[in-house]
Amino acid sequence: MAVRIDGKAISAQAKAQVAEEVAALKEQGIRPGLAVVIVGDDPASRIYVNNKKKACEATGIYSEEYALPANTTQEDLLALINSLNKKPEVSGILVQSPLPEGLDEGAVVEAIDPQKDVDAFHAYNVGKIMQGSYTFLPCTPAGVIELIKSTGVEISGKQCVVIGRSDIVGKPMAMLLLHENGTVTICHSRTKNLPEICRTADILVSAVGRAHFVTEDMVKPGAVVIDVGMNRDENGKLCGDVEFEEVEPKAGYITPVPGGVGPMTIAMLMKNTVAAAKLQAAK
Ligand code: NAP
Fold first, then answer.
1. Which ligand 1 atom sits closest to the C-alpha of 163?
2. May I ask the CATH class of domain 139-262?
3. One of 52, 116, 250, 271 is an active-site residue; which one?
4. Which ligand 1 atom sits closest to the C-alpha of 209?
5. CATH architecture of structural domain 30-116
């Protein structure tokens, strides 16, 4: 039976460390601050934004929220980003995705000052991630690395399979595993023999976004299984990509959903906000 990786407890430790660092920075007159921009009324986005605000409160990070109507123009959104880029109280800027149709998410990300890009989505920071010289770690993949390390399993030399190649999860995930000296295979919707490839994985990370996707026959006995997926099942219940009940007895370690990767992502965002504040203070 797999050991469950407790993302809630591990993220609580990470946030406690951030809170200590925030307190120390405040003594030096540096106050980390996060501006969160949400456009429209997507209910899931609202929950994520509220969780981020709560994490700011818990860690002592100052936060500002900008809730804009769904009919906001690109011009107005870019003007807000520009003003936040210049605002000294704001160390980090996060624009909650997805943006309503008609808004160009890529252009919005590129408008964020790379030194305030705490999601690490700007091309400058993506390039830094490729080089392995991080200003900001991509939040979800960085959280996954911490969860894997919490198990004591060495990534170096291991077969790592990432399912999914999105810019925000799959690709940076593969890159961080590579920087940890894993041997990495990236799978996607055109991959042939996906179950066979997954069965080679000592470390399997699923970031597909489909309930019931990873089944027991795709998992090597004793593997570390990390479930990034956040889906709703047929009954509307939150679930990951992994068929948890059948994979848990076979895996060595497994993350639950909820309570796995999700809380870690937010803890990493807090870490990045502190890093941004330090960066700007050093300017
Ligand atoms: P995405 O942009 O939709 O990417 C999904 C990836 O899965 C794509 O690369 C796609 O391949 C691949 N895929 C789809 N169907 C497949 C199939 N049948 N076989 C193999 N690969 C397949 O999603 P995302 O933004 O990366 O997010 C993935 C999941 O993680 C979602 O459930 C999301 O909600 C969740 N998420 C969670 C957190 C967290 O903090 N816990 C953070 C971010 C995202 P192609 O490229 O070929 O289309």
1. 21
2. alpha beta
3. 52
4. 32
5. 3-Layer(aba) Sandwich (3.40)
